[in-house]
Amino acid sequence: MRKIENYPVLIILILVLSFIMISCGGVPEEKTGVAAGEANVFAVDEVLEMVSKENDVTRTLYTKAIVGKGKLQGMKFDEDWRKDDVEAGPLPALFLRGVATSITKGPVPLGLYLGSDFPINNANKFEGQQAELFSKIKVDQEPQFFYDEEQQLHTAMFADLASAGACVSCHNEHSQTAKDDWVLGDVMGATTWQYPKDSLTYGATMDVLDAYAKGTVDIYVEYLNEIAAFESSEKPTIGDKWPEEGNYLPTAEVFLDSVRKLSSYETMKTLVSRK
């Protein structure tokens, strides 16, 4: 299988942000009583919300610009996309699962999963406290933050909306669906993040963002590698063009550069504001 070159643009962005923090002087030592690099300056809720916003941008771009537009060009996306005899890419939920899997393989203790009250896979059904909090999210779409006593993890749940026709049709038509009348704008589930500590240093915050960025790189590059192995003569051409222009897919560099342009300002503003 031919390998696609890995272009971790978001990781480079995070390194740039780290440099900005150092240049700005970080947190003054006289305010913390400890070295600036060791100070816990972000509450865990802030960090989880920050990485959630990065995820929103990435998944929306993938769902609309890759899956939605790609289907119009004849591209296929399937839950069995990794099988050798299936020439398809990952569905949006599986794209997220790929990011989560990458994170678990690294050293950052960041948890990520997608749950619902009507999941296709029953293992992803919310229960107990999370089910109660999800019922609130369905009403006002406001995030819910709590400490999971059983897992001893700080947890944040964010509304996952049916933001594209591809999401709606896939769930409504799936053979194992528990609900077949989804419409655009519905709260289909909640993206759930977990972390063991109640506050983080700049370094630990950068590690969280870095872990998510690496996960995004890993799953998208895996998808491009799958395409390289397709035997079909109609497989998309990988370059600097997008599906809206034809049977094309952007390289990892082009895709992630678009994510960076859409999300970096908000992240940078949050980080710099705590200097």
Structural notes for this entry:
This protein has helices at residues 9-23, 29-32, 44-72, 92-104, 128-140, 165-173, 202-229, 252-272; strands spanning 40-43, 111-115, 144-148, 153-161, 187-195, 199-201, 237-239, 248-250. By secondary structure, the chain is α+β, with helices and mostly antiparallel strands. Helix 1 runs antiparallel to helix 7 (202-229), helix 1 (9-23) packs parallel to helix 8 and helix 3 runs parallel beside helix 7 (202-229). It starts with 8 loop residues before the first helix and ends with a helix. The relative contact order is 0.22.
How many H/I helical runs? 8
- The succession of helices and strands, N to C, reads HHEHHEHEEHEEHEEH
Query: Tally of extended strands?
Result: 8
The biggest sheet, with number of strands, parallel, antiparallel or mixed sense and barrel status, is: 4 strands, antiparallel
Would you tell me the structural class of the helices and strands?
Answer: alpha+beta
| Share of helical residues | 40-55%
Uncertain stretches of 5 or more adjacent residues:
1-12, 14-36
Radius of gyration: 19 Å
Question: What portion of the residues fall into strands of 2 or more residues?
Answer: 5-15%
Give the overall pLDDT as a whole number.
84
**Distance, first to last CA:** 46 Å
Order of neighbouring strands in the sheet with most strands: 2-5-4-3
Gross morphology: globular
